[in-house]
Amino acid sequence: MEKKKRWKITLNAPVTLGFTGLCFITMILNYVTGGLSNRLLFMTYHSSLMSGFTYIRFFTHVLGHSGWQHYIGNMSYILLLGPLLEEKYGSKQMAEVICVTAFVTGMINYILFWNVALCGASGVVFAFILLASFTNFKEGELPLTVILVAVIFIGEQVYEGIFIQDNISNMAHILGGLVGTITGYVLNKKKQ
């Protein structure tokens, strides 16, 4: 008699799962502290350069979210794209993409938008979206999917940034998309 194989849960994308888990813990912490933890650690804004927290927040702001809808929206994309990207590029590269995106969006927000607090993984989401569009990249070719994704996602952010006043950081989305585009090009060029 043949044994039935048992299904088991595997840890297929450690960086993606770890990042999602850290964001979840941050959401719980923000809820328990009544928003204090986000203001202290998980939101970047123009604060004194003499404070060590300013530099920490350049990276940790991507872990904080303004509410459950914000968190669920971002994590849906992260969990959808992250495992595919981790399989293609490796966990180390994906951790670097997250860190670079966090730093770039945090620094630009600090320098250019003095009165805007920034939190959330939307920049990372856009980096993942644009990076994913490079999966079939070959030297000397520009996949139509890259062009369409850039036009649709980045074009929408430019439009909304100019014509719609809301609490969404279109700058973080655009910069995240640029980080994903540059990373996708560089990583795929190295593999050629």
Order of helices and strands: HHHHHHHH
Helix content: 55-70%
Compute the number of strand runs: 0
Mean pLDDT across every amino acid position: 86
Distance between the termini: 49 Å
Structural class: mainly alpha
CATH topology term: Rhomboid-like fold
Low-confidence stretches: none
Number of helices: 8
List the domain count as a whole number.
1
Tertiary shape: globular
Strand fraction equals under 5%
Biggest sheet architecture? none
How would you describe this protein?
With about 190 residues, the chain is mostly helical. The chain has one domain (about 15-190): Rhomboid-like fold, CATH 1.20.1540. Helix content is about 70%, strand content about 0%. It has eight helices and no strands. It has helices at about 15-30, 35-40, 50-60, 70-90, 90-110, 120-130, 145-165, 170-190. It is globular, with a radius of gyration of 18 Å.
What's a quick, concise take on this entry?
It is globular and about 65 Å long. The chain has eight helices and no strands.
From the structure above, extract its key features.
single chain, mainly alpha, Rhomboid-like fold, 8 helices, 0% strand
